[in-house]
Design goal:
- By secondary structure, this protein is of the alpha/beta class.
- Strands 1-2-7-8-9 form a five-stranded antiparallel beta sheet. The protein has a two-stranded parallel sheet with strand order 3-4.
- The relative contact order is 0.17.
């Protein structure tokens, strides 16, 4: 009887521990979800086309506290990236060159491979002597054919012929499938600007100008461009452009890929409990006009 009592006690303690863990997991889930929804509400309150807030630009971080723990939430603008479904072969080529440091010929071939993967036909781009896309993938030993449709998530890029894990890891932070294809000049990286055919010197001057007087990005004095057609004139006040830089800027604007605001955001929240120790996370892609586009919890 005593052995039975001991076994029963041990089993009860194990069940209590399991229930505590389940309770902690649920609490961290609620904390992470609340942090994400708080960020969504704050973004929505500013509205589309209002680029004055640091949160509406990108890379803002905030902390939320609770009696038993707290959460850290980070917001990034998807509009700071190159849209895989909208970008031209030239933009993609320059992305592979600037972000992955690929040779021009290799970058060009991969750019057209992305175009062929997403376009509706089975014809390999005439840029590479034509032929069938399906046959081209089969000759490369690939078990699948091109999708002939839009990318549904960035990771599908790994299905494109010639895209290795290494190449994808180098470009993944600069690509998206969300937004209308316009890149927010107020938050995009140098690599993204180079992808839009801007000169390196021009990209560096724009980054310096938008950092404000303290020369530090992400602070209250950051300068915000409100109209792409006025960038050249606004730059003249602090970072005058050379004639060739002006031509480079005008060319980038003329392509129609530049914007000044963000309307799609990636929100990441990491929650933790003090007792019992537990952690959890939630990731959301939120569009101001359409709501939640993607949600994942871990």
């Amino acid at each position: 009887m005593s052995l039975f009592a001991i076994a029963l006690a041990q089993g009860t303690r194990q069940k209590i521990t399991v229930f505590q863990r389940l309770g902690a997991r649920e609490e961290t889930r609620v904390l992470a979800e609340s942090a994400v929804k708080g960020a969504m509400a704050e973004l929505k309150s500013w509205g589309q086309g209002q680029p004055t807030s640091l949160w509406s630009l990108a890379k803002a971080e905030k902390g939320f506290s609770a009696p038993s723990g707290g959460a850290q939430v980070k917001v990034d603008a998807e509009n700071a990236r190159i849209n895989l479904n909208k970008a031209s072969a030239q933009v993609l080529k320059q992305l592979f060159q600037s972000a992955a440091q690929l040779h021009e010929e290799t970058a060009d071939e991969l750019a057209w491979a992305v175009i062929d993967f997403r376009d509706a036909d089975d014809a390999v781009s005439t840029h590479f002597d034509g032929g069938s896309e399906k046959e081209s993938y089969a000759r490369a030993g690939m078990a699948h054919a091109p999708k002939n449709g839009d990318f549904e998530f960035a990771g599908e890029m790994l299905l494109v012929k010639g895209i290795t894990k290494e190449i994808y890891s180098l470009v993944r932070n600069y690509i998206t499938i969300y937004g209308d294809g316009r890149v927010n000049i107020n938050v995009c990286s140098k690599e993204t600007m180079l992808s839009l055919d801007m000169m390196p010197e021009l990209a560096e001057k724009i980054i310096a100008a938008r950092s404000g007087l303290d020369r530090t990005a992400g602070t209250e004095d950051d300068f915000v461009f409100g109209d792409v057609t006025k960038i050249e004139r606004q730059m003249a006040d602090s970072y005058p452009l050379s004639e060739i830089e002006k031509i480079s800027l005008r060319h980038a604007i003329g392509q129609g890929y530049l914007g000044v605001s963000s309307d799609v955001f990636r929100i990441e929240a990491n929650a933790s409990l003090n007792r019992p120790p537990a952690s959890g996370a939630a990731v959301c892609v939120y569009a101001l006009n359409e709501g939640v586009k993607y949600w994942m919890e871990t």
